[in-house]
Write a structure and sequence with these properties.
The structure holds two protein chains of two kinds. Helix content of chain A is 30%, strand content 21%. Chain A is α/β, with parallel strands linked by helices. Chain A has five domains: 172 residues, FAD/NAD(P)-binding domain (3-Layer(bba) Sandwich); 119 residues, FAD/NAD(P)-binding domain (3-Layer(bba) Sandwich), CATH 3.50.50.60; 60 residues, no CATH class; 103 residues, Alpha-Beta Plaits, CATH 3.30.70; 168 residues, Sulfite Reductase Hemoprotein, domain 1 (2-Layer Sandwich), CATH 3.30.413.10. In chain A, strand 1, helix 1 and strand 2 form a beta-alpha-beta unit. Chain B is mainly beta. Chains A and B meet through helix 15 and helix 16 of A and strand 1, strand 2, strand 3, strand 6 and strand 7 of B.
Amino acid sequence: MKKVIVIGNGMVGYKFCEKLATHPLRDEFEITVFGEESRPAYDRVHLSEYFSLDSADKLLLATREWYAENGITLRTGEMITDIENESKRVFTHKHDYFEYDYLVLATGSSCFVPNIKGVDKPGVFIYRTIEDLDAIKDYAQKLKNDGKFKASVLGGGLLGLEAANAAKELGMQTDVVEFAPRLMPRQLDKAASDMLQRKIESLGMKIHLGKNSQEIIGEEGIEKINFTDETSLQTDMLIISAGIRPRDELAVKCGLKTGERGGVYVNNKMETSDPAIYAIGEVALYNNGIYGLVAPGYEMAGVAVEQITGGEKLMSPSIDMSTQLKLVGTEVASFGDPFIENDEVTAIVYENKQRGVYKRINIAKDGSKLLGGIMVGDSSDYNTLFQLYINAMKLPENPEDLILGSRGGESKSALGSVLDLPDTAQICSCEAVSKGTICDSITSGSCCSFSDVVKSTKASSSCGGCKPMVTDLVKETLKSMGQEVKETICEHFEYSRQEMYDLVKLQSIMDFDEALDRHGKGHGCETCKPVLASIFASIYMETANRQAPIQDSNDRFLANIQRNGTYSVVPRVPGGEITPEKLMVLGQVAKKYDLYTKITGGQRIDLFGAQLHELPMIWKELIDAGFESGHAYGKSLRTVKSCVGSTWCRYGLHDSVSFAIRIEERYKGLRSPHKLKGGVSGCIRECAEARGKDFGVIAVEGGWNLFVCGNGGATPKHAILLAEKLDDETCIKYLDRFLVYYIRTAAPLQRTAPWLEKLEGGIDYLKKVVVEDSLGIGEELEAEMEELVQRYACEWKEAIEDPQMMKRFKPFVNSDETDDSLVFVPMRDQKMPRPW
Amino acid sequence: MEELLKNYQSVAEEHAIHWIKVGQTNDFPANAGACVKYKSKQVAVYHFTRTNSWYACQNLCPHKMEMVLSRGMTGDSQGIPKVACPLHKKTFSLENGSNLNGEEYSIATYPVRIQEGNVYIGFAD
């Protein structure tokens, strides 16, 4: 057996172990790994997520058990201090020695600390390891306790911005100082840097460019940084993340050839000047460069494993430094040569300051190929562009379509189908998985789903950036084999939501048990129960009371569960219009039950902190005062927001409040695949933000314009124009048709915007169905809505009038006590739950 | 917090010393949970009508330490009866209390007996 010793248990060192552990000749090697940190290798790429995770364990690439199961001796907390090439031995800091046949240096890099006066003062940190983060966190906590909140990061590159995000997550007011005149100087041009700067500064952080730090001032802790241009910056702590330096000290000591500016020289087999010693990752100097990205490090690990096991694989002659990531909440990507400028090249630039998007592609003058590019604010095209670049593929006739989308006609991916990619196209660059490998894993029959493919090929298992493309590949490959990818509800029903909707309707299935008996198996679960509940509600307009146990937990108790298990109560306030009398009732109820009160985004009032048993008492009082359920807990119509409109506003064209109330009253209680929100604006100033809603109505000269399929939230989408200049009745008719059509055909928990995106034919098709009635179902859809409207009942009124239904609000079956475990703490004259 | 969790230890049927009557079968909802109190414990009780099985577990969700599991949705995963916490949909086996999302924390379960229309839960304290 040959002995392999790996020095360094970082991401690349781990990758080496993983690859050797699964190699067919694995049994011929005895593997020992030394890591100087106390933990096994963890994911440094996502280091800044450490603060939001519960524990460091979630960042681990593999557990200690994994090393044990794979017969790898892992020695953490142990540092190698010497290599003796002649006797092939390494020595630890405890003076133990170990013999090797092959030695792999994966010592990585350390943080580059510039030589600034005062850099050793307390309050100065580096950003590299979990221990560094712990130290930063403790110090920040101490500062905050003393009422100090200012942190600064030295370095506006990729790592510096990561560190800045971490400091911000800790609640520090964070500034970034960069020596270069722009952010991420290796990846971005000036305009891209400006865009990123604007985005970051809009979050309250400040960026200082072109600053050369001279001295750090402070006595017990640091107070400020002086720059060479005689300006200075007040700060209570400083985090340095201004580049990396290869950890080559062991190599230097034992006489391996190293670069002038650091790094262990390697050839394309990853061999150092001593053929028994390999170097991989950020310590390796290959082609005169040090590569601080994971993908080249992983490739090096693969080459070293192949070489040691007698294979012939060599390192690619040129290293691709393309990268796509999210920095301080902003998508940033850069690929190929992002800056290239000469006579042979044309740059196409798209800049949208309102949306905060900048895109640049560099194209050969003859339009034949893509040479590189930059994206800030929206990197959704990265995978496509990267594939076009790396495979030198032919570009579309109008290359600007690549970043602008095809304007006019149906939008189509610039790539056409993912299946058009060459088999050699690398889809996952972290794990070096090609399109061919992914497709083969499916056509050979060994994989038949996305998760199978990830498990078997490892594609998309590292940074996850290629996930959309892998998903598409899996879908398209299965499709090409004649296998339709079926989106079933869950393990209990082998049907899609739309199929179940049709079955329930055609067979007049009345309850969940019947549906399970006829078309499902098992007991059901938290996925299929609410789906069926929604279908029953949409077909029969039954309230959440009749089959309470299959309702999602909020619907079951007709209220929104909050942090500590108490509930919030939101009565309906149609169109946001409320009388002073009703407003006072809300105040009185809130006061009586000691509820935290807040105005919601949907123009109503939320009362928080009600205990389960208090809900019926609260609702009794609200209903007596003329309120109804607001369905804030349901996947159902929430609010129709309005601006004040022509009755009061000097600009208003039509009476938006009255129309909003009419619409909200019409669709109240309507249950749907996901929540539904509407808005009505009295003029194009659009104060009701109607285009951020599932349906929005905007007054124009001559009627209402109807927009559909917008939303706010995580992926904001503006609603799209469905029809123009409608009178009230036609607008409602189209809304009826649109809503029922959506309810019938959407997937579970699919809001209108993604529904439209998936709808074949898109908005043009929807216009045909709703406006032109191309399917001839217009009247049917309207009649269906009319029946639902007629059957509406306030489910809270229903609940408090029925003793059987009231049972569910009793905290304990066997006691009349109430839950005494609740703890609230005061906040700004009101209360909040004890924090988690 | 740790103290709260210590209050809940699984009890195997053969180790139950006290069988506490917590109500009649029709006091409990079908295919859903309800909560009962025993000393300082809050215990969630579930009735799965399709197999006429009864289960009991702690009401405390160990993820964020809130008394909410009795209000979670029930169901099964590959035949294992389970409950999903109403706060973040963490799911737990009602047979052995193990976490079905692959996370570390688990819950305590208690044996249930039905005699003459009454529901009894077995405790070891």
